[in-house]
Amino acid sequence: MAKYYIIPNGKDIIAQIDAPDAEGAMADFVISMDTDMSAYFRAVTEQEYDEWRREQDSEAHERFVIDFMTSVAANDFGYNEADAACIGVKAYSIYCEGNGQTEYECIEQAVEEYEEEYGGGREGEKE
Q1: Contacts by 92-100 with C-beta closer than 8 Å and gap 24+?
Q2: What CA–CA distance (Å, rounded) separates 53 from 35?
Q3: pLDDT recorded at residue 16
Q4: What predicted TM-score, i.e. pTM, was given to this entire model?
Q5: Which H or E run includes 30?
Q6: CA 88 – CA 84 distance, rounded (Å)
Q7: For residues 10-46, b (16+ Cβ closer than 10 Å) or e, as one string?
Q8: What DSSP line would sit under 62-79, residue for residue?
Q9: List of the chain residues with pLDDT < 50
Q10: Which uninterrupted H or E stretch holds 36?
Q11: Minimal CA–CA distance to 88: which of 109, 105, 110?
Q12: What 8-state DSSP symbol labels residue 122?
């Protein structure tokens, strides 16, 4: 007999429920859920579970770094939310190239490239 881990099936939110509280949301979900549990979960081997955990950790780290870079673009460079988000993604891409730059240097490069391509975009500037 092999050991299996039960993990969420996919990366999407399983359900979004409007309810007055968490208990009500769970009750509404249970009432509306599919009786086939494979719609929500899947069984994986220990090796598949380890791979899944590494992927989850990697994705969480990527989101964390992009959020940090976006925040720096907004707070240190004065970009609005939408432009800062574009810069954050670009800075992360530069960082992943492994060119020896710090995260902040990658943000600076992304800001330069963004300004060259789009110009402006900072809070208070006319577009």
Answers
A1: 92/62, 92/65, 92/66, 95/65, 95/69
A2: 27
A3: 84
A4: 0.72
A5: helix 22-32
A6: 6
A7: eeeeeeeeeeeeeeeeeeeeeeeeeeeeeeeebeeee
A8: HHHHHHHHHHHHHHTT-B
A9: 124-127
A10: none
A11: 110
A12: B
Polymer length in residues for the chain:
127
Distance CA(76)–CA(110), nearest Å, equals 13
Structure tokens at 15: 């359900």
- Say how many C-beta atoms besides its own lie within 10 A of residue 70's C-beta: 22
Residue 63: per-residue pLDDT: 97
What's the one-letter identity of residue 72?
Answer: V
Tokens representing residue 35 in the block: 């009786």
Residue type at 14 in one-letter notation: I
d(C-alpha 51, C-alpha 23), whole Å: 33
Residue type, 24: G
* Direct distance between the N- and C-terminal alpha carbons of the chain, in angstroms, rounded to an integer: 65
